[in-house]
Specification:
Elements: H1 3-13, E1 23-26, H2 30-39, E2 48-51, H3 54-62, H4 70-73, E3 76-81, E4 85-86, E5 92-93, H5 100-108, E6 110-118, E7 131-135, H6 140-149, E8 153-156, E9 167-172, H7 179-187, E10 192-195, E11 197-198, E12 205-210, E13 213-217
Parallel strand pairs: 1-2, 1-3, 3-6, 6-12
Antiparallel strand pairs: 4-5, 5-11, 7-9, 7-10, 8-9, 12-13
Helix pairs in contact: 1-2
The protein binds ribulose-5-phosphate (5RP).
Ribulose-5-phosphate binds near residues 97 and 98.
Length: about 220
């Protein structure tokens, strides 16, 4: 199976977690795109979705699912999203698609985070994938210097502006042995909006699509 077929397969398996849920949190990325496509068949049961990006919003609207403001819905029962890396503790590295800030907000506001990935995203230690950090534009160089102090090699994602009007630094060569501590440390740098480490609030369920089926971590 191709990686995209595995993404589709794992997206299908997440449908089991939205039964009876009328308002969903929806992430961003190619795996979630498959999930959104599948939602078309269930739209009569779905009151609406809180979306983590303009891209997912457009896709949801196209299939006729109303997109709701998080402020109007309060806490969410389930949030479904992908990840760039996930470890055995259900901690994730996210933000390859640049939507990390809204993703982290929705994750925090949701009772259950269902992470859907193909098995290639499963790692022993987070950090091989460059860690995205969303920054206020005027702070970019300052934050980059602080990230070097933490042992990383930040690279500006040039010609890219987030949905929130900010910029992204992708931090290479990190070996993240303590994701909770690193998330806290990077959160504390002035000018950082969001770091793509989801360790303080990890996933509740991880579904990993592989050749023989879907493996679940819970
Ligand atoms: C977007 C994300 C995505 O979940 C992550 O990049 C995985 O994407 P894909 O499903 O395309 O592999 O964090 O900001």
């Amino acid at each position: 199976m191709t990686q995209d077929e595995l993404k589709k397969k794992v997206a299908e398996s997440a449908l089991d977690y939205i039964k009876g849920v009328s308002v969903l949190g929806i992430g961003t990325g190619s795996t979630v795109n498959h999930f959104i496509d599948l939602l078309a068949d269930f739209k009569q049961d779905i009151e609406g979705a809180v979306s983590s990006s303009e891209t997912s919003t457009a896709k949801l609207k196209k299939i006729g699912i109303p997109v709701l403001d998080l402020n109007a819905v309060g806490s969410l029962e389930v949030y479904v999203d992908g990840a760039d890396e996930v470890n055995a503790y259900k901690q994730m590295l996210k933000g390859g698609g640049g939507a990390l800030t809204r993703e982290k907000i929705i994750a925090a506001a949701s009772r259950k985070f269902v992470c859907i990935v193909d098995e290639s995203k499963y790692v022993d230690v987070l950090g091989k994938f460059p860690l995205p950090v969303e920054v206020i534009p005027m702070a970019r160089s300052y934050v980059a210097r602080q990230l070097v102090q933490l042992g990383g090699q930040p690279k500006w994602r040039e010609n890219y502006i987030t949905d929130n009007g900010n910029q992204i630094l992708d931090v290479h060569n990190l070996n993240i042995l303590n994701p909770v501590e690193m998330e806290r440390e990077i959160n504390n740098i002035p000018g950082v909006v969001t770091v793509g480490l989801f360790a303080l609030r990890g996933a509740d369920i991880v579904l990993l699509g592989n050749e023989s089926g879907v493996r679940k971590l819970d």
